[in-house]
Amino acid sequence: MNPNVQRPRFKIRHKLIAVLLLLLALPTLVVGLVSYNVSKSETDKLIESKLQSNVRLAVEMVGLMDASVQSGAMTAEAAQEKVKSMLIGEKGQDGKRPINPNIDIGPNGYFFIMDAKGTLLGHPLLEGQNIWDKRTSDGYLYIQDMIAKAQAGGGNTYYLWPLPNSDKEAMKITYAELDPKWNWVIAAGSYMMDYNAGQKHILSVLTLTLAGCLAVGAVVSWLFAQHISKPIARVAARTRRIAEGDLSADALDVRNRDEIGQLAADFTIMNDHLQSLVVHVQAGAEHVLASSQELSSSIDETTKASRDIAASVQHIATGMETQSVSTRESSRAMEEMAVGISRIAATSSSAFDASVHTSEAAEEGYRFMQKSVEQMNRVSSTVAELADVIQKLDRRSKEIGEIVQVMTGIASQTSLLALNASIEAARAGEQGRGFMIVAGEVKKLAVQSESSAQEVIALVDAIQADIGYAVRSMTKGENEVREGVALSRETGESFKRILDATRSVVEHIQEASSSAEQMSASSEQVAASLQEMARITETGASGTQTILASSEEQLATMEQLAVQADQLSRLAERLQDAVAKFRT
């Protein structure tokens, strides 16, 4: 951490004032809060008690009215209306009842009467309505809770309800009790704020008392803090001047007769002792600094000369060693290159032989492919001729079918003529008997001819179907043969391109093989020369390393002396700088 950086300060005077005010305010605040809570609790109890008393008075009133009804002095309806008028107010033409000003249950408080099902029997505004399902804004069924507590002997219900002529909600309290005579649920309620005027007065008094105590305590605390903090501030200011190197100030003037006064006196004595110490240290620091500077100058000159010698030897040794390493690496690289070139030459020779065989095989394949193309062309021609023959056969079969159709017609006509002849012979009687026999034979021949014609038609149809299938197959075969011929031609062209590329590869491989053999012979000569150079360089590097080791030992010794002299010089300078800060 930098000591010169000013940290944010909270003065001791402020701390004392804050602590004293806290000690004054905390007990006062605690007492005030406890008193306010106690008074609030008692006020709440008085509110509950007042509402309970009013409702019970109303129940007693119902009892008196019921006694009048029982004695016959008035009817039940009149008695009930009188109770409602006394508790709430007279019912107007609009069905509303103005709140009776003679009954005080708060500025916004009033009585209302329900039955056990939540129907309002008496209310300033909602008389006759059923409010059993009435809820607050948070969903609380406060009417059902009132009726349940009334039936259980009476109780208070707390709930939030909007203020008159406003959307703002406030806490409301209602006490409800069941009347045993008429089974009425009589309730009286008002807002809690209608009764907390006393609580507000207590809170304001407590606030004013706390403010007054804090004001008086602040003045007293400030005076006490000044008495304590002023001498300490003077000592702190003098300490800051000493930290900045100023020891020439006069003695502190602190009149406190306590520990703070004793602190100021002891601080003055410490200041005097520091002045004496700084004077002696300044004299010694100047003498040490002069001696260390002379020693450091001498050592620097000697170290510089030794460093120049060591640097030159180091440069030579580094160059020799680098050259030796490079020569060895070059020799190994040339040996590896010679081996690689030999392998390349052997591989090139093998590749040349393989490429020659490949070229010969490609030429032979090309010749076979040309023969295949010629054969496919001949097959294509044969298939085309066969397709023409089958198509001719198809046409001939159709012509045969037409002839058979004609024969069938003739047989039918012949059969019809034989039938007519038989009819005419029958008419002729005995003279036409011989003619009838001939007509019968003719008819048999006609039937046989027609039967044979039908068989021929069936046979011709089968032949035509087979010929049609053959035509389709030949057409498909002819198309496939054409595609095969085209593919054979393309394959022949590809073989020709492969043959040309193979011949070019053979020529390049032959050239590469010759070059590799020449490179192999040259690399062996270069490797031998590099090995001889590496041997000579290693001998020179060994001698240079011996000289370099001696120079480095001498330089290390001089550098140690230089470091020690420099440290002594810097120590003397720091001591002188530290003492120079103080003004005596």
From TrEMBL:
CDD domains: HAMP, MCP_signal, PDC2_MCP_like. It is a multi-pass membrane protein. Keywords: Cell membrane, Coiled coil, Membrane, Transducer, Transmembrane, Transmembrane helix. It is found in: Cell membrane. The chain crosses the membrane at residues 202-225. Residues 226-279 form the HAMP domain. Residues 298-534 form the Methyl-accepting transducer domain. Residues 548-578 form a coiled coil. It holds the Pfam family MCPsignal. GO terms for biological process: chemotaxis; signal transduction. The keyword Coiled coil applies. GO terms for cellular component: plasma membrane. SMART domains: Cache_2, HAMP, MA. InterPro entries: Chemotax_Me-accpt_rcpt, HAMP_dom, MCPsignal_dom, sCache_2. GO terms for molecular function: transmembrane signaling receptor activity. It comes from the Bacteria. Gene3D superfamilies: Methyl-accepting chemotaxis protein, PAS domain. Belongs to the methyl-accepting chemotaxis (MCP) protein family. This is Chemotaxis protein.
